[in-house]
Amino acid sequence: MVRFCLAALLGAVVSLSWVASAQAPPAAEDDLTPQQTEALDERLKTLMEAATNGPFEFLEGPIVLNLPEDERGVLEFSVEADRTYALAGVCDFDCFEIDFEVTDIDGYTIGGWEMEALDDRMPIAIVTAEQSATRLLHVDMRRCASTSCAVAVVLFVEGS
Predict the structure, then answer these.
(1) Cα atoms found within 13 Å of the Cα of residue 56, Cβ hemisphere only
(2) Which of 38, 68, 76 lies closest to 153, judged by CA?
(3) DSSP letters spanning 50-113
(4) Which domains does the chain have, with CATH numbers?
(5) How does pLDDT run across 120-142, given as a tens digit for each residue?
(6) Rounded distance, CA 21 to CA 137, Å?
(7) Most CB contacts within 10 A, which of 37, 41, 92, 112?
(8) Mean pLDDT across the chain, nearest whole number?
(9) If you average pLDDT over residues 75-97, what whole number do you get?
(10) Is the Cβ–Cβ distance between 65 and 94 less than 8 Å?
């Protein structure tokens, strides 16, 4: 489990229930450079402030993947029917573009996910789940200026 200073910001222990695929196992904090950790901390703080000032509440994360350019990481998460979720990602200073795709457990793209981006380094996927189910988030590292780039993903749920 990777915990950044974000956990202290939230005043709670961050617990992850996501499972990363064998394609890209979660990065341990020791696997990240100090610059990657600093970049993720800075961008996660900005993301958390923006997300929680709106209708969303923090649910889970961050989970961190360290991906080379043109590689894909896959995260598994669960949704409950009739709840609105937002998956948001940030990446380090060497990352220039990451993309999200949400599929069912068999890999079929799930319609209804509204894909947005604050910029190419901060994708957001939002949906109201029609049914309770397990979903997969595919994280694609499109452009990375170093050997690998760190990506942190956080799951939010709309408040009740």
Answers:
(1) 23
(2) 76
(3) HHHTTTEEEEEEEEEEEE-TT-EEEEEEEE-TT-EEEEEEEE-TTEEEEEEEEEETTSPBPTT-
(4) 16-158 (2.60.120.380)
(5) 778 888 888 989 999 999 999 99
(6) 10
(7) 92
(8) 78
(9) 91
(10) no
